[in-house]
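Go through the following before class.
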Amino acid sequence: MRRMAIAGALGVGTTGVLAGVLLLGPLAASILLLVVFALVWPLAAVVRHVTDDAPYESAVIVAGAAAAGVLCLPGLVRLLAWGAAGLAVALVVAGLFVLIDLVTPERRPRPSRHQRKLAQLKDAELQEDEQLIASLKCPLSIEELCGVWTETATTLAQGAGARDRQAVAEVRRICLDEFERRNPDGFHRWLDAGAPANPSRYLLPTPGDEGRRTG
């Protein structure tokens, strides 16, 4: 419905522009278009540059629309002066534009510059997380993995953000897999003890254990 309304408005505006050209003449209409375009385009370009989420993509389109709108005003006055005939012409052109809109497939809206920046930032953050996770898949020692687990416990206790919590969850999953694979007995003792923040006393060999193994 919104697209149909916009198409109808464009049809009426186009009729007004054509009527404005007939009213002012081609030369005067061209001069008016150039003057308005030259005034609006720099301002629209500045706004587009300083605003991250400008409601338009091209300053040229904005300037062209403004110039056409200025030319449309005297044209619409001329159409109203024609009475019923002018109104009929405007309605016919508006109906034609609506018909064209109905047979034209809808295009996906192009993301704004602000949305594109957010997407790029999110991709960069995901790459950082993937690099961190990939680094943990290297053959770290059990002692180093225990240190990583303790550090992540501190991170969670300090109130990590949503992105950090997601990365920490993946890191801890890797640590749990390695704990169970390398020392299943110590891993289960650690779980039975309530999985304290420092698992090294359950997973690392104690001097007594090493002495018994040597003996």
Notes: Residues 118-204 form one domain. The chain is about 80% helix and 0% strand. The chain has two domains: 2-103, 118-204. The longest helix spans residues 26-50.
